[in-house]
What does this fold into?
Amino acid sequence: MRLKPALALLPLLAAAALPALAQATSPARLQKAYEAAADAPAQAERGRSFFISRHGAEWSCASCHGQLPVDAGRHAVTAKPIDPLAPAFNPKAFTDERRVEKWFRRNCKDVVKRECTPAEKADVLAWLQSLR
It folds into this structure.
């Protein structure tokens, strides 16, 4: 028995959707994963300090996201608007693991000229989640 071409594609489409679903997460789950990778608990105050520091470079995280990232920010070069970073002010923040990793990688290279460590990511997330 032959399946109609459209029905034959259903298992492929369902399988293709699984990786996207597996990437859904929450800020708290990401923080726990970073803490596990760092083998240390996050420290919110250390995250705040990391966020506002220039690390010997031209920019800090706050250069685009603001000293207190509860409002929309603006990219320092392109002036493109940036949604609030604190999860309490942006429910979509830190809910897609792939996107979070992409932006951590890109922004850390801009700010600290390297990829951030799991401990740094956990600290920043702890601080961002403390903002209400």
Observations:
- The helical segments are 5-22, 27-38, 44-52, 62-65, 97-111, 118-130.
- The longest helix spans residues 5-22.
- The chain has one domain: 25-130.
